[in-house]
Fold:
Amino acid sequence: MLILLPELEYAHASKRIADNTLPDERKLKAPTMKPIKFERDEMKIIVAEVQDYFQNELDSNIGSIPAELLVQFFAEKIGAHYYNRGLHDAQALVRKKIDDVSDEIFSLEKTTRTRR
Structure:
C-alpha cells in the first residue's frame, strides 16, 4: 500500500509505519464510512415513507417507533451497500469528466512537422 506522507521520505516513513514508531497523530487509519444519521426532520419524512409503504404495499400498519427502528436497521446493515454504489457512481463520473478534459486539451494541440 502506498502511503503519502509529504514531510517524510517514503522509505523512512514506511519503516516507521512498519515499526509502529510514528507519533500518534501521524498514524494512518483506513478511511471508514461514517454512521448514517438523519436529522430529526429527515427521519420524520423517512418514517412517513415507510409507514406509507407498509399501508399501500403490504396493507399493514406500522407505528412510528417500529418504522424508525426499521430505518435504523437498514441504515446500519444495508447502508454500506448504497454508500459503495454511490462511490462507484461518483468514480465513474469523475473518470468521464477527466477523459472529457483530456480530450479537450488534446484538441488544442497544434500540428507540427515532427512526429511523436
Q: What stands out?
A: Helices lie at 10-18, 40-58, 64-77, 79-107.
